[in-house]
Amino acid sequence: MKKMIGLLFIFVMSLPVLAQEKASLSEAEKDEIIKNVSALLIKNYVFPDKAREMATFLRKQNKKDAYQQQSTYQEFAQALHRDLQRTHRDLHLGLHYNPRQVAFIRQWESQKQDSAFQQEQIRMAERLNFGFVKVEHLPGNIGYIDFRQFAPPEKEARQTVASAMGFVRNADALIIDLRKNGGGHPEMVQLIMSYFFKEKPIHYNSLYDRPTNTTKDYYTLKTVEGPRMPEVELYVLTSGFTFSAAEELTYNLQTQKRATIVGEVTGGGAHPTQSFAVNDDLVLNVPVARAINAVTKTNWEGRGVMPDIPSEADKALLKARYLALAKLRDSSSSSMERAELSWELNIVEAELHPIQLSHEELTPFAGRYGDRKLLLYEDGLYFQEYNYPKKKMTPLTKDTFSIQDLDYLRVKGIKNEDGSIWKLLLLYQDGRTEEVIRIE
Questions:
Q1: Cα 143 to Cα 164: distance, rounded to the nearest angstrom
Q2: Which of 282, 311, 327 represents a domain boundary (last residue)?
Q3: pTM for the model
Q4: In this model, does residue 435 exceed pLDDT 60?
Q5: Theoretical Cys-Cys bridge with 259: which of 179, 234, 305, 350, CB 3.0 to 4.6 Å?
């Protein structure tokens, strides 16, 4: 693939369509468009036989006057796009009306070797932080990276990756969030992959490129600029939006048995795509290559990557945190660590499976316990210590609560035989407990 295709992919897909278009489209213009689309497919589409089949179908449709009712570029492009997908369903393949994107493609073609132009594209990628949205340290010593775009691995992008990996280098488990990642550049996949394997290169994927009729094998890199984490417990989050290069990273890690995939089945696009100008108004996105996984000898095209642990996308992070905490707890030889991890595990479990207590069920807890009060309001129970601000309480079980902003403390109500609460058991994260008798 050409070096700057990834940059083109990043920016051009967000360009808006111009508001105005030609009022009518002549039959001669339709013939020329079909001719150009057919030529681009036959020359570049990853499956030559399918390219010929699609081109033949468009010409037959045109001869039957199937496009006679489409009078504008927008309508005509949509009709051709439907027929392309009707002939051969490919989520990467598409024809769109977008004059501004055409102008960008032509500018890119004419200036792609110009260093000033390349620096401007890098500057634009920098403003997106090369796809890295959030890097975080979660309770239980779990690292978290929210990563939404595989930019080309230019120097600045590599430095950003190294910084992100450096931040989570001491984590016992790491979660990579690809739920909002639509893909990008295969060389960035290679770079990210390399951080999770040892120095010895491992062949994990190949890409067949149709325009050049060549196949490139991809291996993990011998050297990276940040810290390697070949032993870290690794989780990858996916959704139906996860696509293309994001799917490749997910599939590669899964087939190498290096990560646990949590979330939804991914979009199913295993064919890198290039955008071509059909004329001054239309853009044809053509899959020009296909992935060949080193383990399965196939890819995820049209099927998506199947998660190891299915989960709704919006709960995938909680699910991965739960799995990581449980595994770390069960494998730890330190009683202090196990207690800490169990403490966090209870919180995550309560968020995954919330306990709903009615106003009537909360009423017995309200009262004064020494210098502490439990106050009942319409929206739930609150904890107040001395004259400090009151804090919202969240039920972990039917009698135990966590307290907003007081991560080190939990409250358990101890009941009499008649069901009334006569004392509180204060549970501290370090294992201490304290009993407080109810006084009113």
A1: 10
A2: 327
A3: 0.85
A4: yes
A5: 234
